[in-house]
Write the structure tokens for this entry.
Amino acid sequence: MPTLPRVRKAVIPAAGLGTRFLPATKAVPKELLPIVDIPTIQYIVQEVMDAGIDTVVFITGRGKEAIEDHFDQYLDLETKLEKEGKDDLVACLRKVRSMVQIVSVRQGTPRGLGHAVLCARQVIGDEPFAVLLGDDLVDAKVPCTKQMLDVYQEYGKSVVGLWEVSDEDVPKFGICGGKMMTDRIMEISAMVEKPKLAEAPSHSAIVGRYILTPAIFDILEKQAPGKGGEIQITDAMATLMRRDGFLGLQFEGQRYDAGDKFGFLQANVAYALKRPDIRPKLLAYMREVLAQTKKEG
């Protein structure tokens, strides 16, 4: 197999309105809602950086300027903190603005995830690239994106991240079916967007991680609207699958759906428990809550 081009760029769609978190997201982009004290999207960008990718393409819309500002320099604040001797906070701010190169593309009218990815075409060019959804967190020893890049480099095919879901959740996702090549890698033969449970090829759901070859762009250009009248990335990937093949990786790690209220709470608790400065107090509080709940029956 010829040497594959390195994946250097990642697309993060961030044009959604965040209606599930209203009124909090009326003026604040949902991607900036914090997991403890770090915005959700910063965790996503950190994963990109840790995977060796150096450029992030944000697909944004009206009211999302704050996302770009978060990763930009705030000289007045840094100067103020320096004068106050708060060097740890200064270092924190400087780390954020030096993580990766940021490029922003306005989507205009949101027309689905497939359309958001297509908006990045001029920046991506004729290169393979990653796509990460801004509300899907994966806590893993090896970054989820790095796990997927390793599969891409070994097999030379597009890759999606797979997560086993319950019967109840099957109709909420794109679902894949196929044969397992290893204990974690699936050679995909079917992709169905939000199927009824009886029509689903498995319980392996496509979650917010993708490694795609640039061939996806020509397919998206011609892709007719699918479920919900939107340009569905799953439909385009199914076409690419039939033409070039497609793999799914049941990645290692714990996934949190930070775009769901309960998932957002789960992520906050889980990441707080990883913090030595918070863990003891949080555990004590959780024990108090459980004890009180038992008393109340």
In short: The chain has a mean pLDDT of 91. The chain has one domain: 9-259. The CA atoms of residues 3 and 11 lie 23 Å apart. The first strand starts at residue 9 and ends at 13.
